[in-house]
Amino acid sequence: MPTILVEVMPKPEILDPQGKAIANALPHRGFTGFSGVRQGKRFELSVDGEVTEELLESARTAAAEMLSNPVIEDVVSVTVAEDL
Amino acid sequence: MNDFNIDTVTNAADTPETELPWAELGLKQDEYARILEILGRRPTAAELAMYSVMWSEHCSYKSSKVHLRQFGEKVTEEMQKDLMVGIGENAGVTDLGDGWAVTFKIESHNHPSYVEPYQGAATGIGGIVRDIISMGARPVGVMDPLRFGDIDHPDTQRVLPGVVAGIGGYGNSLGLPNVGGEVVFDSVYQQNPLVNALAVGVLKHEDLRLANASGVGNKVVLFGARTGGDGIGGASVLASESFDDTKPSKRPAVQVGDPFAEKVLIECCLELFHNNLVEGIQDLGAAGISCATSELASNGEGGMHVELTNVLLRDPSLTPGEILMSESQERMMAVVTPENAANFEAVMDKWGVEHSWLGEVTDTGRLIIEWDGDTIVDVDPRTVAHDGPVYDRPYHRPEWQDRLQTDTFRSSAAGGDLPASAEDLGQAVVELMSSPNMADKSWVTDQFDRFVGGNTALSQPDDAGVIRVDDRTGLGIGLATDCNDRYAYLDPYRGAQLALAESYRNVATAGAVPLAVSDCLNFGSPEDPDIMWQFAEAVRGLADACMELGIPVTGGNVSLYNQTAGRAIHPTPVVGVLGKFDDVSRRTPSGFQRWADGQAIYLLGTTRDELDGSEYARMRGHLGGQPPAVDLIAEKTLGEILINASRDGMIDAAHDLSEGGLAAALAEMSLRFGVGSRTSLHELCERDGVDPFTALFSESQARVLVSLPRSEELRFTDMTTARGFPALRLGVVDAESGGIEVAGAFQDGSFGIGLDELKEAWSSVIPSRFGGAAA
């Protein structure tokens, strides 16, 4: 079953409190060498059957209008994965 | 380090012909001319950024200043008795006694909350809380007066859940109880929701801090979150249009808050105050570093020297103008003596707060900002912070005002066929209580933490939020916010006074002595003379009423341009009143107590035929006529009665009559703890010369319903008689019946409403629209 993957990230210029908290925590656990962390999210939209161009377009629209908040987030990618 | 050109002062002097995008930054032609005149040359890009944002309506109060002066002029000695810091600082400070002081302020975050409801409402809380911190106080509570469009409008469906979740998300994370506020629905707020936020803090007298940069040679430090592109509206114009067209021109206008960073900032600041490590402090809100540097400098010795490249950035591509205008949250600026610098740094390290030393205080009378050694700002800070344009905008009474005021409820079609039979009146009460504005708001308030900290003595739905300040003595405060925008629309002068009267009454009903006022004046465009008249009238009304009640306005906020497509909101002067308890254990709750079976119910005050602008009229789709009469002397006497009754333990419940009149007050007092009542309107109708319908739904002011044990009746009525205040026994608390029974001069006996039925109707309204949990 193919899956459409949607990746959403906070806009680069927007504060990302979660990423900041993780960035602060990393060195405390001995993970040094990372200068920053930003945390986004990934959606997996399962599809029964074939991923048509229409379906992909519909996923892109859903990503832009519903899965992300266009005021503070960017849709980074909408891709198809065959065997997840 | 950056790929943009730096517009230095020298460069500005050498290139007078360079066109700057002042209009895009919101400056008017004459305002820009004034800047040219002040500087004697064209401003640099950074200077233009500073002036444009500091001279905006939001920061400069340029349209409202001439009217707001009345709050400082119409004052008596009595009003200043307890006042430690008045209008003009981040928030006013009032003496509480025992070495304690209290500071509170209300602000608007209307527009950001419309654009991005969650973050807008969240950062509204964050901003007002930092105002409180910068006075040297520990924040102890917040309140949110909220106004949305019609409950069934899609806009409300989008905005309300986000706003409620944002307030909860930020306030709950900070560990601050949210002890009250309002939720109002009216189609005038569609696309213009009002999200106001009030914060209150307490401090010991010696911890008081002010925003001034004193002491030549003292260091200026920025601490807290890093500076990013948040909230930059106009500065993007500078970035993209005049210097570098290849940069991403669309900077976000939305700030994102981080409540956990703010919590650390609160504790860190309190430690700085406690150890006496800062000379002056200012929070960074609107206009960010522009505001903090120019205000600190002009309130202190008059000069400051800052190296802007020292600012820690989240986004290294920001231009100097953008850095100056950024509204990144959770930042503070302080002035520290060189001797204290090491200790200051130790506190920063302890709390893990980033800081950067930006420069120092000077006595040159100039605010100098450098970028890597090149001077990019050289201004008199007063011209930026205080000497902005002031407009006495034209205003006149709208030509439709008279027509509106003569269209009374009684004379309208809606007021023609009023319920008169017991059955119809009973149904009308249920209908009233299940209308969106009277319905149970716990779907909203349950998402706020009302009791965190363990010092909340009363909160929504009681008349006032009550917070204990000193657990040794029980010293505490009571707070309420109110505004009936329909009254203010019918008559802005009286409407503002009625907002104050209700807020005052709510605080006194809980048992607190009213001390101070903070106001959030939400209006449409000041460029419309009709709207400007509403504003001028409301301010005049509020200032007059404050003088009569003897409590000062200690601070507040003005929010103008609340209109979309030429349609303005109703004038909405939200008024917060703060009161004092010697001992919060004496507070009076708003509901009949389960153990109070058989207690007497008294109505204090006089009922007149005042239905214009009422909730009943709203239910019938009518708005016109004159708002209820204002009687501030009666409000004051009533307040004294309630405060004494609470102090002497005479009454066990008290609730003020406001929207929905006696019908709503009776219903709310029973719904609070599920305890019914039996009352009769006979005597009331006879004494005040009104019919049962008017007795139930009129919104006459200066009225309160109380319940008291029979053993206290004589003492209580002696007190009301001695003060010449009308008090009438309406009936008794009935804990057994499970219903509200009202007898009266009806055509057909009495009506009874089962509490279960009423509760179902009252509590299902909001959940049925917004579902289980907020988004």
TrEMBL record, chain A:
Protein location: Cytoplasm
InterPro entries reported in the protein's UniProt record: PurS (IPR003850), PurS-like_sf (IPR036604)
Keywords: ATP-binding, Cytoplasm, Ligase, Nucleotide-binding, Purine biosynthesis
Primary subcellular site in the record, as a coarse category: cytoplasm
Enzyme class of the recorded protein, top EC level: ligase
Record Gene3D superfamilies: Phosphoribosylformylglycinamidine synthase subunit PurS (3.30.1280.10)
GO-annotated biological processes: 'de novo' IMP biosynthetic process
GO CC annotation, single: cytoplasm
Family the UniProt entry places it in: Belongs to the PurS family.
Main function: Part of the phosphoribosylformylglycinamidine synthase complex involved in the purines biosynthetic pathway. Catalyzes the ATP-dependent conversion of formylglycinamide ribonucleotide (FGAR) and glutamine to yield formylglycinamidine ribonucleotide (FGAM) and glutamate. The FGAM synthase complex is composed of three subunits. PurQ produces an ammonia molecule by converting glutamine to glutamate. PurL transfers the ammonia molecule to FGAR to form FGAM in an ATP-dependent manner.
Subunit structure: Part of the FGAM synthase complex composed of 1 PurL, 1 PurQ and 2 PurS subunits.
Name this protein carries in UniProt: Phosphoribosylformylglycinamidine synthase subunit PurS
Organism: Nesterenkonia natronophila
UniProt lineage: Bacteria, Bacillati, Actinomycetota, Actinomycetes, Micrococcales
UniProtKB/TrEMBL annotation, chain B:
Keyword annotations from UniProtKB, A to Z: ATP-binding, Cytoplasm, Ligase, Magnesium, Metal-binding, Nucleotide-binding, Purine biosynthesis
EC number: 6.3.5.3
SUPFAM superfamilies noted in UniProt: PurM C-terminal domain-like (SSF56042), PurM N-terminal domain-like (SSF55326)
Catalytic activity: N(2)-formyl-N(1)-(5-phospho-beta-D-ribosyl)glycinamide + L-glutamine + ATP + H2O = 2-formamido-N(1)-(5-O-phospho-beta-D-ribosyl)acetamidine + L-glutamate + ADP + phosphate + H(+)
GO CC, alphabetical: cytoplasm
PurM-like N-terminal domain location: 88-202, 462-580
Binding site for substrate: 108-111, 130, 255, 327-329, 559
Function text: Part of the phosphoribosylformylglycinamidine synthase complex involved in the purines biosynthetic pathway. Catalyzes the ATP-dependent conversion of formylglycinamide ribonucleotide (FGAR) and glutamine to yield formylglycinamidine ribonucleotide (FGAM) and glutamate. The FGAM synthase complex is composed of three subunits. PurQ produces an ammonia molecule by converting glutamine to glutamate. PurL transfers the ammonia molecule to FGAR to form FGAM in an ATP-dependent manner.
Protein name from the UniProt record: Phosphoribosylformylglycinamidine synthase subunit PurL
Organism whose genome encodes this protein: Nesterenkonia natronophila
